[in-house]
Design brief:
The chain has one domain: Rossmann fold (3-Layer(aba) Sandwich), CATH 3.40.50. It is α/β, with parallel strands linked by helices. Strands 3-2-1-4-5-6-7 form a seven-stranded parallel β-sheet, sandwiched between helices. Helix 4 links the parallel strand 4 and strand 5. Helix content is about 45%, strand content about 15%. The chain has nine helices and seven strands. The structure holds nicotinamide-adenine-dinucleotide. Nicotinamide-adenine-dinucleotide binds next to helix 1 and helix 7.
């Protein structure tokens, strides 16, 4: 299927690693031009070079998105470089463990890392998205609906992202701009590996988690998340908006007591 994205421009936050990188690569594979907004320079610049050698644009924009002014600069830089913006993918975030014991400063900091920039990127991009009748895809988390324990800031941010998906979808529907959210649960990425490494027995913890994932008893791949994101970014999903879509092998909603029959 031709997703009709050829030549369009996407801004992706946190596109240098993990899920964001898979999204960037999937958008480029559809012939899009990409602005990758990321904090650390090395991976972003390497991606830019890799695609430049193939004649494709994966323009790296260095920014710490937890800083409000940087969000405005990032959108403006993308517009200056490409002259248009059709798609925004809000992806950057970190499960930073600001729990009930953390207090005001760490809780607010977690919202700045996980929520405020989602709003600010769309805020600064909205006029251009309206002009292009574009699309926004947010990356949420199952933590918004399941909780996790010890991570109030992240849970609050991801819950708010689900709410904002509905709010923005409605506010922007009159302009033909669509807004959807993709929810990962257990995806093997650098962030996930770092978190698992903090547990007493990471290998056993990984096996325990995998057993709870109904479809295939395995982690979702970043590419599987990216495939859904690209579809939602594309005109092929022209009548889909305000949706919160779980790409999680059934982890969040299906009965965890289910044990697959042994293969004989
Ligand atoms: N991995 C999972 O299992 C999982 C599960 C649920 C939700 N998610 C969500 O998916 C998204 C991506 O997660 P991931 O696992 O790929 O993470 P990751 O840490 O592997 O990659 C995130 C990328 O975003 C960048 N980034 C983070 N905060 C930034 C900031 N303030 N400014 C600029 N760049 C920043 C990082 O440098 C990194 O390149 C996040 O929103 C996360 O909450 C992931």
């Amino acid at each position: 299927m031709d997703l009709q994205l050829q030549g369009q421009v996407a801004l992706v936050t946190g596109g240098s690693k993990g899920i964001g990188e898979a999204i960037v690569r999937a958008l480029l594979a559809e012939g899009m031009r990409v602005a990758n907004v990321n904090r650390s320079a090395d991976e972003g610049q390497a991606l830019e070079r890799e695609y430049a050698e193939r004649g494709q644009e994966c323009s790296f924009i260095q920014a710490d998105l937890s800083d409000a002014d940087s969000c405005q600069r990032a959108v403006q830089t993308a517009l200056d470089r490409f002259g248009r913006l059709d798609v925004v993918i809000n992806n950057a975030g970190v499960n930073d463990g600001a729990g009930l014991d953390a207090g005001a400063e760490r809780f607010i900091r977690s919202l700045q890392r996980n929520l405020v920039h989602y709003y600010l990127i769309v805020h600064h991009a909205r006029e251009e998205l309206i002009r292009r009748r574009g699309a926004v895809v947010n990356i949420g988390s199952k933590v918004a609906v399941t909780g996790q324990g010890g991570t109030s800031g992240y849970a609050a941010a991801k819950g708010a992202i689900n709410s904002l998906t509905r709010e923005w979808a409605l506010e922007l529907a009159q302009h033909g701009v669509r807004v959807n959210t993709v929810i990962p649960a257990e995806v093997w990425t650098p962030m996930y590996a770092e978190w698992l490494a903090t547990l007493p027995d990471p290998q056993q913890a990984r096996r325990d988690i995998e057993r709870l994932i109904p479809l295939g008893q395995r982690f979702t791949t970043a590419e599987e998340i990216a495939a859904m994101v690209v579809f939602l970014a594309s005109p092929r999903s022209a009548h889909t908006t305000g949706q919160i879509i779980y790409v999680d092998g059934g982890y969040t909603h299906l009965d965890r007591k289910y044990v697959p029959p042994a293969v004989t």
